[in-house]
């Protein structure tokens, strides 16, 4: 089977070829300022290799849906699907080897990042029997693997960095070959850029980007000026899939996509100034009146406001305080409701807000009157109940909760499961119980959870060559298992 494609030509007219099979093993990094021809290069690469290998494109700017008409790619509108549906789509894409474009153009920046991160993670976590070779192209990669924290939420940044690092560092064994394109090397996380062995460097002007590009190409720093002088559509190439020595290449034409707009100057209209003024101002008021949008509907009330109004109405119809149960009894009933809720099948797979709403609904059904735990207090009590700490002695509960003070809220429930097992002298993790507490069915997420807790110094993980995993909790005195 043919594995080489032509991406362009040298100045002498000699074709420059790209070994797609080698690319699957070595990955690719593309850099160039806006207007340097990055998207044109990616399109050329995708078009020429379309019949050879599965292709998955993460497209934040809506540049690549036109591949569908010419080459049969399936376009997925990221704005049309819920997070769980995006993950399910990714699993089906790996199973059926579909070439797709994930179009994120209809989303806000942070939504784009979260959607792409969940999509890439699901591709990475696909079952072993679906590890088919695929090119995964990420345009504007500095958004999805930022070198420094920006304006996005910290949990979003951690999620997207983890997804991109897995793609570039560990994706090869799963058949995933990352191709990342960025405007600024300095804005791209170094651990993502460092995993590429092939490079196509386009025009860039900032010294810091030129120096990094020259270092990656193996050029002396005084030669970095050459990168500033590159014309549009011209790139310096290096890597085992292209060439062993730096080589200047002009990217060839493409068949799909919109034609570039005409560059340069255009003659201005020859309309007289008075006529131009009339064109701009005549009937302006009536046009503005017609164009005025209807007044927007009043905003929907927030969920919290609806809940408060429902609670207030119920309290008005509830028995008088003198006839209601005592405060201690209310607390006991609240604990009982949380305990029962923690045992419901599948409850851990719901979001914390959904769990809290279910809890409030049950409290209203029981017509409980009194102070309710807020979201933060509920999450901790729900985690304690789900882990079964209620059955332990009070001093052991206090010890475990003290050790859990530094644990992130989303990871508290699985940590408590581990701590309870460690106290009982069990050194092997019950991964089913851990998965239920964490709300996941992905072995990959469980592995990353344990890795994260170990990096935080909360647990110690040891794995032998047979795959048996031993987990200990430092500072927790365990009882020998019988």
From TrEMBL:
Single annotated GO MF: ATP binding
Key words of the record: ATP-binding, Nucleotide-binding
InterPro entries listed in its UniProt record: AAA+_ATPase (IPR003593), ATPase_Atu1862_pred (IPR014588), HerA-like (IPR008571), HerA_central (IPR002789), P-loop_NTPase (IPR027417)
Keyword ATP-binding listed: yes
Superkingdom of the source species: Bacteria
Residues of the AAA+ ATPase domain: 24-214
Alphabetized Pfam families for the sequence: DUF87
Cross-referenced PANTHER family: HELICASE MJ1565-RELATED
Protein name: ATP-binding protein
Taxonomic placement: Bacteria, Pseudomonadati, Pseudomonadota, Alphaproteobacteria, Sphingomonadales
């Amino acid at each position: 089977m043919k594995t080489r494609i032509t991406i362009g030509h040298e100045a002498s007219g000699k074709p420059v070829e790209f070994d797609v099979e080698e690319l699957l093993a070595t990955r690719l990094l593309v850099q160039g300022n806006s207007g340097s021809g990055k998207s044109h290069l990616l399109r050329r690469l995708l078009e020429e290799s379309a019949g050879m290998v599965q292709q998955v494109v993460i497209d934040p700017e809506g540049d690549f849906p036109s591949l569908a008409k010419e080459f049969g790619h399936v376009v997925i509108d990221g704005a049309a699907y819920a997070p769980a549906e995006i993950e399910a789509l990714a699993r089906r894409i790996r199973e059926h080897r579909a070439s797709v474009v994930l179009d994120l153009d209809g989303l806000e920046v942070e939504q784009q990042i979260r959607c792409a991160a969940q999509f890439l993670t699901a591709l990475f976590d696909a079952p072993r029997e679906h590890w088919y070779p695929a090119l995964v192209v990420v345009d504007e990669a500095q958004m999805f693997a930022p070198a420094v924290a920006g304006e996005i939420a910290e949990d979003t940044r951690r999620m997207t960095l983890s997804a991109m690092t897995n793609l570039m560092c560990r994706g090869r064994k799963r058949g995933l070959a990352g191709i990342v394109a960025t405007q600024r090397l300095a804005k791209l996380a170094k651990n993502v850029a460092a995993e590429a062995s092939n490079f196509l460097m386009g025009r860039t002007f900032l010294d810091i980007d030129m120096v990094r590009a020259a270092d990656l190409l193996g050029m002396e720093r005084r030669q970095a000026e050459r990168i500033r002088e590159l014309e549009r559509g011209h790139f310096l190439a290096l890597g085992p899939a292209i060439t062993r020595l730096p080589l200047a290449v002009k990217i060839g034409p493409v068949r799909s996509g919109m034609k570039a707009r005409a560059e340069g100057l255009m003659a201005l209209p020859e309309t007289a100034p008075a006529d131009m003024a009339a064109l701009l101002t005549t009937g302006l008021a009536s046009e503005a009146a017609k164009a005025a949008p209807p007044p927007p509907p009043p905003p929907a009330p927030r969920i919290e406001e609806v809940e408060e109004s429902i609670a207030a109405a119920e309290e008005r119809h509830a028995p008088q305080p003198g006839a209601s149960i005592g405060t201690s009894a209310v607390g006991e009933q609240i604990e009982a409701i949380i305990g029962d809720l923690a045992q419901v099948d599948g409850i851990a797979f719901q979001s914390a807000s959904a769990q809290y709403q279910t809890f409030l609904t049950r409290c209203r059904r029981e017509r409980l009157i009194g102070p309710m735990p807020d979201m933060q207090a509920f999450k901790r009590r729900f985690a304690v109940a789900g882990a079964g700490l209620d059955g332990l002695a009070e001093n052991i509960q206090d010890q475990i909760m003290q050790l859990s003070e530094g644990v992130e809220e989303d990871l508290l429930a699985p940590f408590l499961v581990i701590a309870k097992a460690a106290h009982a002298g069990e050194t092997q993790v019950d991964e089913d119980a851990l998965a239920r507490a964490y709300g996941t069915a992905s072995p990959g997420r469980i592995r990353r959870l344990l890795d994260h807790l170990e990096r935080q110094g909360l647990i110690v993980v040891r794995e032998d060559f047979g795959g048996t995993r031993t987990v200990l909790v430092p500072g927790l005195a365990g009882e020998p298992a019988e």
